[in-house]
Amino acid sequence: MPEQLDYISIEKKYVKPLKEENEPHYSECEKRLIAYSLAWEGHIAIYYNQPYYQPRIVITNTEQDLLQNFHKIAKLGRITPPKRLEPNCKPLSQWLITSYCEILFFLQKVIPHVPSRRKRKVGTLVSEFCESRIRKHKQKFPLDYDERELWIVQEVQRLNKRGL
Question: What are phi and psi of 13, to 5 degrees?
């Protein structure tokens, strides 16, 4: 049982609802700009972060100022400090969202404008996963993953494989 309590407290920090006054409002132009940025440079995924699955939206770039401008438009997420992965490469920064509520809000606004069918499908699945986890969290228990959630995780991983 203590394992379950740890799991609940860990997941709880990702399910903080957005306050209505803090919800970003995007123009149609901003939605398209965000959608195309996500299609070209972004990644929508669900990672296994023991003991739970963590949805994440990430845009990676070597240009910190581009990510800062993107962050100003998106009004969600955060930017990581630059990291040099290889000695001969430029340092990479990331804009990312890990909160279930922020991911759900962001995907509902942006996914219809994403030009890539595969990314649209992944975004729709991740959105469904977030909705399910938020709904379960409001009920307190059970927080275990149901069959549909586990299928979504596998399908998102399959769609994100290279060469598909």
Answer: -65, -20
Identify whether 164 is part of a domain.
Answer: no
- Pick out the chain residues at pLDDT < 70: 1-23, 138-142, 163-164
Span 52-100, pLDDT tens digits: 899 999 999 988 888 998 888 888 999 998 888 888 888 899 999 999 9
State pTM to two decimals.
Answer: 0.81
Report CA-CA distances (Å) from 88 to 91, 96, 125.
9, 25, 37
Q: Does residue 83 fall inside a structural domain? A: yes
Give residue 58's domain range.
2-159
Please tell me the total count of domains within the chain.
1
The CATH number given to whatever domain includes residue 107 is 3.10.28.10
Asked, for residue 12, whether it belongs to a domain, the answer is: yes
Taking the C-alpha atoms of residue 121 and residue 136, their distance in angstroms, rounded to an integer, is: 23
DSSP 62: S
Does residue 126 contact residue 44 with C-beta atoms inside 8 Å?
Answer: yes
